[in-house]
Design goal:
Shape: globular
Number of helices: 9
Strand content: 15-25%
Largest sheet: 8 strands, mixed
Radius of gyration: 17 Å
Structural class: alpha/beta
């Protein structure tokens, strides 16, 4: 990837760390304001991953947003503490701190909270915990881990995730003092429609997942729950053939032809533009 097309810098605060990606140095230093900022939380079962591992995906998303009509897109990728060194609520607190940092520099309506797998779990739990503050413009959730330990998480012949390992990671994240099935760890278990209504971003939720992935039934369960709440916009984008966990990211890393590699990124950037550039 040509780094001359984008710039990035590390952000190290007392309460969170991350990587800030933009088109130029002026934006990185907040001398020029972005017209959209994606706040991204990476996946990895709470146990692995970093903004650097995702850098090609994240930078490509910023560039794709430019092609969709945004003049100055940017992205902040959170580097939260991993298990088993840190457990809940450390990661949630870091997620909220990163979002508050963005709110100090850009209007909430221009923030898109996004993530994949465990990172999308952090996004959802952040929204549920901070319902009284200003809400982001949109949530884009790639294969969210909505129910940490649940029979809804089923093994499939196509997907690469293993439910036994997932349960281990879930219990490490919860630690000794918390039940992994509590809604504040497993947002899919929150059945309070009013709570979801007050937590929803202005433009609602977009779920991007694969039909063949382990989490598909659980994601569908949460999507249906949200649809019951009047006033919440819910969009589901389901990849059929070859639709495995986090397929937009996996496709970028594993596919050989550019249209296949960029399919998920183009789709996500189009969703954001359709919602925020109306």
């Amino acid at each position: 990837m040509n780094h001359r097309l984008f710039q990035y810098t590390e952000i190290k605060k007392d309460d969170f760390e991350g990587s800030f990606i933009a088109l130029d140095q002026e934006t990185l230093q907040w001398r020029k304001r972005p017209d959209v900022v994606v706040y991204y939380c990476h996946g990895g079962g709470f146990s692995m991953g970093s903004s650097y591992f995702y850098m090609e995906f994240l930078a490509s998303l910023v560039l794709e947003l430019r092609t969709q009509g945004f003049e100055n897109p940017a992205l902040l990728a959170l580097d939260y503490s991993l298990v088993p060194t840190a457990t809940y609520p450390t990661q949630l607190n870091q997620t909220s701190a990163g979002f508050n940092y963005l709110r100090e520099n850009v209007e909430s309506s221009k923030i898109v909270v996004a993530g994949d797998s465990a990172g999308a779990t952090l996004v959802l739990t952040h929204l549920l915990h901070h319902r009284s503050g200003k809400r982001p413009g949109l949530a884009v959730l790639i294969s969210p881990w909505t129910h940490l330990v649940s029979p809804l998480n089923r093994r499939t012949p196509s997907d690469y995730l293993d439910t036994t390992t997932l349960e281990l990671y879930a219990r490490q994240y919860a630690g000794r003092d918390h039940n992994p099935n509590a809604y504040y760890l497993s947002p899919g278990n929150c059945k309070d429609v009013e709570r979801w209504r007050s937590a929803a971003p202005d433009k609602g939720f977009a779920f991007v997942y694969g039909s063949q992935e382990v989490f598909a039934p659980a994601i569908q369960d949460l999507a249906e729950q949200l649809k019951k709440a009047k006033g919440i916009t819910v969009q589901e984008i389901v990849e059929g053939e070859g639709g495995i966990h986090a397929w937009p990211i996996v496709s970028l890393f594993l596919k050989q032809k550019r249209p296949e590699r960029m399919k998920g990124l183009a789709l996500i950037s189009q969703i954001i533009a359709e919602k925020l550039l109306q």
